[in-house]
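seq as requested:
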Amino acid sequence: MPVEIERKFLVVDDTWRWEVSRHRAMQQGYLGAPGGKASIRVRLEGKRALLNVKAAVMGAVRAEYEYEIPLEEGREMFDNLCIGRLEKTRHYIDRDGLTWEVDEFHGDNDGLVVAEVELIDPQQEIPRPAWLGREVTEEPKYYNHSLSLKPFRSWHAH
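struct tokens:
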């Protein structure tokens, strides 16, 4: 079973921008409400569409499957079947042998910036960049599926 080991952190300032090597605009939509065994997502990235199935559990280690699908079908699913949507720009930073993915959210999640790092072992040490803030791996409200349904802008206190 494919497994993703990922930790998620808030970003405390803009100094990460100096380290970005590349970026990609993304739209994501979810094919169902939270509460089941899996989160099913359609992602549009330029001329690519991806279907992703991820175990709906909190924490750093989760089963994950991802498949490229025809772009037109991805757009149709996004436009007609998704109940929650979000937009973000993903910035990539290669640092200390790791690739950080810094997600800068737009629209109703504007103002939220989250950094994720994929690991090979849940106990792996992570050199912490100065721009890295509090870890939110165990906080469901920061997961993209949750943000698509209850966006950052709707939270009472940031």
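The chain has one domain: 3-154.
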